[in-house]
Amino acid sequence: MTLPVDAAAPTERRLLQSIVEVARHAFGAAASSIFLVDPDAGDLVFEAVAGEGDGQLVGSRFPAGTGIAGWVAASGQSMLVDDLRESEHFSGTAAASTGYVPNSIMAAPLFSGDACIGVLEVLDRGADGVREMADVELLDLLADQAAIGLELLTRLRATAPDQRSDKALRLLAMAESLLENARG
Amino acid sequence: MSDPPWRRPAKAYTPGVPAWGAMTSTQTLEEFAAVPMAGVSPEWAWGGADGSGVRVCVVDSGVQADHPLVGGIDRSVTTVENDAGVVEIADCAPSDRAGHGTACAGVIRSLAPKCSLSSVQVLTDGKTGSGAALLAGLSWAIDEGFDVINLSLATTRTALSARLHALVDRAYFRRCALVVSAHNRPVPSYPWSFSSVISVASHDEDDPATYYYNPAPPVEFHARGVRVPVAWPGGGTIRSTGNSFAAPHISGLCALVLGKHPWLTPFQLKTVLFLCAGNVVGRFGGAHDTPR
Predict the structure, then answer these.
(1) H-helix segments, chain A
(2) Residue B241: strand pairing partners
(3) Which residues pair with B192 in a beta bridge?
(4) Which residues contact residue B252 at a Cβ distance below 8 angstroms, ignoring those fewer than 6 apart?
(5) In whole numbers, what is the pLDDT of chain A averaged over residues?
(6) How far apart are the first and last CA of chain A?
(7) Where is each GAF domain found (chain A) (predicted)?
(8) Hey, is the C-beta of A45 within 8 angstroms of any chain B C-beta?
(9) B205 burial type by CB count under 10 A (0-12 exposed, 13-18 middle, 19+ buried)
(10) Optimal mutation site among B95, B127, B161, B190, interface A, most CBs of chain A within 10 A
(11) Distance separating alpha carbons of residues A3 and A91, to the nearest angstrom
């Protein structure tokens, strides 16, 4: 008996979605998103979005190192930028690829051990321009919590199917023997 | 012109001979210019300086050379992995994929308008970029003999720590002032936490010239790092927050100081920065007296 490989995927999906919902709410932001680093290609893959762009973005990719999320993933440092509309080049690229041009982006790395596995991003925070350092700190805290949740889930996914199938097989065997005994 | 003593290769070790001794009774050591620290003040340190003659290198995501706030760079290289899987240095177009290196270069230029700026792109590949490329890029910059290297990066990979430690110590002894931003959060990370670098985190005031000595290291200095107007690829500016933008303020300052006093060693330079910091008591009668 084998369980599907992605048995825990819906939970992972819900966890990621809950993280971006919390982040968006905490900052009164237009949108929040999570990218995970594709371990093979190094690409950043949009995994969850709350707010602007939530319908169409999940699954789309950016090459490693691109833009603010790329820098955050590569450097493991969080970053906050405002006045992005001032920079036509950046806005053009962002607009073309996501359909939403933010004025500010705040991004924090998600760590698993000492490796950066993704980026938590918040677009257009509501509280404008007063709490920069505190905002980055809060986003870092959220990112850490999110990363721990992801790590636990990944670990669970790696170990749980076997345990569950073992238990299921044992229960099945027990039921069969009970039935046999009952018949006998 | 031959290399100065601090850049000469180490002498070969001969078994049985003390490695670090000098027979001064029979051999005269080269003379050294001393720097009297008593008169050190911001005016002494950087008054009238513009960074002329100082070579600064930005190790980051690349630098867009034609950005008006960058004003040209002298050399632009990137890290590439060859067929054997070894990371090498190659000349590249002066461009920036992420914007971060351009932002750092612009801050340095704003403080030291006449310094020479170069760029090493190490953030090119999310898969292998931050490890091997960082080591290769930083190593190249140190060997090139830049006077100041700005590294607004930190790695959390403990596997890199020993090699980074050796590398930044080499920079220190070769009179390369390595200015490194502290990680934005309290996680074990490198190389900012090593004592041979000048480590910088943010304060939240708006003055680009104000900086403080941190009384509770490891991070040694606090410079402007909140809502900093920085150059951004495409030509405009954005406001950005993070220790990444505090470090180039100190890099720029180092370029100014070294432009006036090129003989300063990294530890003397750090002492000058310490003596001129906004919260150091003694010169102006009390802490937090505005020194300028």
Answers:
(1) 9-27, 67-75, 88-98, 132-183
(2) A80
(3) none
(4) B51, B107, B108, B109, B110, B111, B112, B115
(5) 78
(6) 28
(7) 11-160
(8) no
(9) middle
(10) B127
(11) 44
- A37, A65, A80 ranked by CB distance to B240: nearest: A80
Whole-number Cα distances in Å, B152 to A54, A64, A93, B50: 33, 19, 24, 22
* Cα–Cα distance measured from residue B284 to residue B277, given in angstroms and rounded to the nearest whole number: 11
Query: B206 and chain A: CB distance < 8 Å anywhere?
Result: no
Cα gap A42→A44, rounded to integer Å = 7
Sheet holding B116-121: strands in order across? B87-91, B75-81, B116-121, B55-60, B148-151, B177-181, B198-203, B221-224, B211-213
The larger pLDDT score, comparing residue A63 to residue A104, is at: A104
Please state the rounded mean pLDDT for residues B32-59. 88
Looking at chain A from residue 56 to 75, which residues have their Cβ under 8 Å from any Cβ of chain B?
64-68, 70-71, 73-75
Q: Does the pTM exceed 0.95? A: no
Q: Which two tokens stand for residue A10?
A: 């819906």
3-class SS of residue B199: strand
Instruction: Look at B2 and B98; give whichever has higher pLDDT.
Output: B98
Distance CA B114, CA B109 (A): 8
How would residue B181 be classed by pLDDT, with cut points 50, 70 and 90? very high
| Mean local confidence (pLDDT), B159-163 | 93
For residue B99, the model assigns a pLDDT of 86
Q: Left (φ > 0), alpha (ψ -120 to 50) or beta: where does B8 sit? A: beta
Query: Would you say residue A3 has pLDDT above 50?
Result: no
